[in-house]
């Protein structure tokens, strides 16, 4: 079965992976907003609007969703998670080339960049950092939630700034990520809606991935050419 769909699109993400991405994105945002008043009194106005008990419960409910989502995803969206977790480990020369020329690309100077694999150098960096932030948030959050009486308070309080830093850095990365998706590469967003992207976009942004798919027989060279032309 060819990976070409609707004549000019190629399959990229499974729907279970797409759902896992959105559950992660939504729970991260809800956690960030409901965490703000815990971080600083200047956000206490949010408590006045929504109720402090509500906000604190929502933070804990979404913390559970944020933790459980990728664990379920590893089983239900096995292929997508496998690619996402192994791609950053294969960081090489072509990824360095991408990162080095990325600023020129953003300035609209269209530099010639080496063909990228399933995820490009920037995406690999984003994945690695978001996995690290996820781990720091989960461990520090669990210590703050369950550590009272178990871990000495003089140590436990250190996990408040650690938790806040990971949240702030994760949000900064996420905002950059959203800008790059919606503002710079709107064609990529299609992949996070129905799992497919334009063949032309795939070839242009993930040329090595397409070459690998041709080699493994997921799509033939002719089908790919046809799909790119069809757009
Ligand atoms: C808290 C919010 C979010 C987090 C933590 C997050 C994280 C990620 C990660 C780690 C990936 C895989 C690699 C990558 O593309 O860098 C990804 C993929 C993707 N995300 Fe997000 N995301 C968030 C929100 C969003 C939003 C709001 C959009 C915009 C519509 C978006 C669009 C995409 C797209 C299009 C991809 C697929 C890229 C591809 O196929 O190459 N994400 N996301």
What does this protein structure show overall?
The protein has helices spanning 15-39, 44-50, 52-76, 78-86, 93-106, 121-146, 153-156, 159-184, 186-189, 199-205, 207-215, 221-230; strands spanning 4-5, 9-11, 196-198. The chain has a three-stranded antiparallel β-sheet with strand order 1-2-3. The mean pLDDT is 96. It is elongated and about 65 Å long. The chain has a single domain, classed as Fumarate Reductase Cytochrome B subunit (Up-down Bundle). A hairpin with a 3-residue loop joins strand 1 (4-5) and strand 2 (9-11). It is mainly alpha-helical. Bound molecules: protoporphyrin IX containing FE.
Protein structure class: mainly alpha
How confident overall, as mean pLDDT? 96
**CATH class label:** Mainly Alpha
| Largest sheet composition | 3 strands, antiparallel
Shape: elongated
Count of alpha/pi helices: 12
What's the helical proportion of residues?
A: over 70%
């Amino acid at each position: 079965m060819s990976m070409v769909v609707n004549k000019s699109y190629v399959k990229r993400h499974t729907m279970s992976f797409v759902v896992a991405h959105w559950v992660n994105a939504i729970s991260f945002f809800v956690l960030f907003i409901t965490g703000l008043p815990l971080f600083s009194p200047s956000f206490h106005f949010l408590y006045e609007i929504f109720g402090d008990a509500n906000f604190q419960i929502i933070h804990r409910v979404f913390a559970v969703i944020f933790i459980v989502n990728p664990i379920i995803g590893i089983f239900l969206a096995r292929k997508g998670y496998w690619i996402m977790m192994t791609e950053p480990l294969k960081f090489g020369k072509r990824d360095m080339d991408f990162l080095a020329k990325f600023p020129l690309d953003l300035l609209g100077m269209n530099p010639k960049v080496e063909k990228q694999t399933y995820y490009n150098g920037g995406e690999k960096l984003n994945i690695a950092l978001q996995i690290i932030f996820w781990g720091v948030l989960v461990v520090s959050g669990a210590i703050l939630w369950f550590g009272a009486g178990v871990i000495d308070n003089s140590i436990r309080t250190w996990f408040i700034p650690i938790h806040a830093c990971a949240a702030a850095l994760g949000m900064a990365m996420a905002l950059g990520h959203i800008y790059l998706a919606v503002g710079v590469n709107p064609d990529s967003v299609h992949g996070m809606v129905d799992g497919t992207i334009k063949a032309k976009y795939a070839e242009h942004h993930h040329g090595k991935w397409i070459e690998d798919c041709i080699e493994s027989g997921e799509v033939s060279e002719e089908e790919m050419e046809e799909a790119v032309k069809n757009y």
